[in-house]
Design brief:
Layout lengths: L6 H10 L1 E4 L5 H16 L7 H7 L1 H4 L5 H10 L5 E12 L5 E4 L14 E7 L7 E7 L24 E3 L6 E6 L3 E7 L6 E11 L4 E3 L3 H10 L17 E3 H11 L9
Parallel strand pairs: 10-11
Antiparallel strand pairs: 1-7, 2-9, 3-8, 4-7, 4-9, 5-6, 5-8
Helix pairs in contact: 3-6
Bound molecules: fe (ii) ion (FE2).
């Protein structure tokens, strides 16, 4: 296993729930990704049009199996395998609305943190205090709560929270998906657009809550070669997921009173 993260970085991730890698992408790579995102914008593709992104924007599609990121996530997963959950890409401009406090750990219902899920936030232009700042509550990944339990706090500072508003271009942040985070809207930026993408990964060993179209997404990823000559075909393994929409419906009917007694 390639050891690209130091033990100190791994320890820091486990304590705080995030890890900043400044200037991770070299500028030519970032530019290729940004060109793909400009084409997305010109074609009217929305940030959550996952199928369209994977089918038609290969620079974005290949981010799902970026070797240096996969090696680092492998270390954080303690050498176990994991699957790609979803990707998202958006070029944000002045006036971009914020995203109140929430987390993105995929579990129905939220009951434990036995297996690791991570998000990789990619800031191809870095952060500079305009458009939006990233807020994090370090350590909150250890608290089990609904994804929007603190949503009503909006973009307010919370006790112990930090604001990340300065990052070099091409920086990435690896987040434990259960860490509370928010994007606080900020004025400024003019005509400038900020290019942001994220991927996410789920540790093997349990079934995870997947999006409805995950089988199609994985098939397209494999057809487009995002597994890099089968080196990473395990990232696109649909058998690691259950259908979240269906399970959510079933759960709503059963989730009355003492759920533990119904196991
Ligand atoms: Fe989020």
């Amino acid at each position: 296993m390639e050891e690209l993260l130091s033990q100190q970085q791994i320890d820091s991730f486990e304590t705080d729930g995030y890890l900043v890698l400044e200037g991770y992408f070299e500028s030519q790579h970032s530019q290729r990704v940004k060109d793909d995102m400009d084409r997305m914008t010109a074609n009217g593709v929305r940030p959550n049009d996952r199928l369209d992104i994977l089918m038609n924007y290969p620079e974005l599609g290949f981010l799902t199996s970026e070797p240096g990121i996969i090696a680092r996530v492998t270390q954080l997963m303690r050498g176990t395998r994991f699957t790609h959950h979803h990707m998202h890409a958006s070029s944000q401009a002045d006036g971009e609305k914020g995203e109140p406090w929430h987390h993105d750990y995929e579990q129905l219902p939220q009951t434990n943190r036995s297996h690791l899920m991570v998000h990789i936030f990619m800031y191809f232009d870095g952060l500079n205090g305009e458009i939006g700042d990233l807020l994090l509550l370090p350590g909150s990944q250890r608290q089990v709560m609904d994804r929007r339990a603190l949503y009503d706090f909006g973009y307010a500072d919370l006790p112990g929270s930090i604001t990340i508003d300065s990052l070099a271009p091409g920086s990435i942040i690896i987040l434990h998906s259960a860490i509370l985070h928010a994007r606080r809207p900020k004025p400024g930026g003019g005509d400038y657009r900020r290019y942001f993408a994220n991927t996410s990964y789920c540790q093997d060993g349990i079934l995870w809550c997947g999006v409805d179209e995950i089988a199609t997404l994985n098939q397209v990823a494999l057809e487009r070669g995002y597994d890099r000559q089968s080196r990473y075909s395990w990232l696109f393994d649909t058998s690691q997921f259950y259908n979240g929409t269906k399970v959510w419906q079933d759960l709503k009917e059963k989730n009355i009173g003492s759920l533990a007694l119904k196991l």
